[in-house]
Amino acid sequence: MVTFARNEIVSSSQFVRNFATFLKQLTESKQEKIAIIKNNEIQAVMISVEEYEKLKSIEEISERKEIFDAVQSRGQTPESEYVSYDEAMNNKI
Question: What is the pTM of this model?
Answer without folding.
Answer: 0.68
